[in-house]
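Minutes, project check-in

Agenda point 3 was the complex the collaborators sent over. CS summarized: two entities, 518 residues total, and the question is how they sit relative to each other. Sequences were read into the notes so everyone works from the same version.
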Amino acid sequence: MDPLYIIKVGGNIIDDDQKLKSFLTEFAKIQGKKILVHGGGKLATKLAQDLSIQQHMVDGRRITDAETLKIVTMVYAGLINKQMVAQLNALGSTSIGICGADANTIVAHKREHPSIDFGFVGDVDKVNTSMLLTLLNENINIVIAPITQDANGQLLNTNADTIAQEIAKAMSKNMDTTLVYSFEKKGVMRDVNDETSVISKIDKEAFTKLKEENAIFAGMIPKLDNAFTAISAGVSRVIIGDAIELSMLIKGESGTTIH
Amino acid sequence: MDPLYIIKVGGNIIDDDQKLKSFLTEFAKIQGKKILVHGGGKLATKLAQDLSIQQHMVDGRRITDAETLKIVTMVYAGLINKQMVAQLNALGSTSIGICGADANTIVAHKREHPSIDFGFVGDVDKVNTSMLLTLLNENINIVIAPITQDANGQLLNTNADTIAQEIAKAMSKNMDTTLVYSFEKKGVMRDVNDETSVISKIDKEAFTKLKEENAIFAGMIPKLDNAFTAISAGVSRVIIGDAIELSMLIKGESGTTIH
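CS then shared the predicted structure for the full assembly.
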């Protein structure tokens, strides 16, 4: 199977023009087929503030009311997506920007919760890989904003980490898929305050042992749990690390490789 | 050659939810390959007002400063584009939303003018049809927002009528292309105040005669000049008429057909 890189880039990189440029330059360098998944939370929060649209958080999660849905659709699928695409094209790395709604690539439903109304937040039901495969086959990179839709045409705000993971799982049936979570940290660390404590490789057995010994930063556990779920579903490897070291990450020279 | 319909929809339809729904339902009904080009000026103007970003008009044209460029990118390529795509998908008409920047489909340059700085306004240099042909070949409709980029990755605000025309000219090399300008009027009228004065068919000779006799509404002349330019460049026919009668327009049962 052909290799495929699916790279999620975190918010702090997107908010910093210089870091974003470095990241996109690294992304453009990767040989082969690739998909980039992004969010852009801080810019959305700023636009909401400028428009005096109050943001409601419940348990650390943003409630997406109708006005907030418009904002995230504009910021994620419009501004950030097209700015990234234009920069990649200028770097000679021909790219298309889409969101999950395009060609029904990601079908979702409005989140149901017994007590909290999250508003227009989508949980993923299904990934349709056919258009993604067609575009990759033409050597076009795909940049994906985390907006999806339901069967009735309702747009939904959807977690970008989840989108990256669901696409990776679906694509792994056709391609040798590497999923990269890139952000502003060096990787999975034993001690969150010590950048030299990055664990370079970890498998399920080692992870279980580290958890038992409390020898891993608690905030990393959900990310690792998700990584092992992806691997169980067919993804070849998951890499977690620093976005501006992307080409080193995919060679295993930096960050944490989960296999 | 396979038939292709390229349909430009005007701003007043987009601003009215009910009319937009009727239009998209008509669009979904058209059999065969199709491309939809849209703008969305009034929503962009409203967002600029809400953000207290002053809009400057020179000779009836909007100056696109850096903040206004962000607004049109968000509104056109984000909100309006994805709302249309989601509605079309829900109607069973599988669609992707892109802008001119995606996969370098439309390469433009910043407008040069001896005395007026239009800001980030793009004039079209070239249309790359390869991705459009690939997507149409997969029976995916393409919805295009009028944002382009230059070779350096600068996004540019570009006239939607021009984009529709340039794409039609380029696609006419590969497909039997019909270009439709759909808006809130019934077609080209001899008398702008009389909806029964729609000219159902017009060729170059008849147009010259009507102009000589001053028997045509002056505001329609630039649209017709553009239509004949498109036809000279290989477009099979241009149709001008009412967006909510789209399926009648393409059958020649409504509106004006220029051939």
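Noted in discussion: Chain B touches chain A through 42 residues (CB under 8 Å).
Follow-up: revisit at the next meeting once the mutant set is ready.
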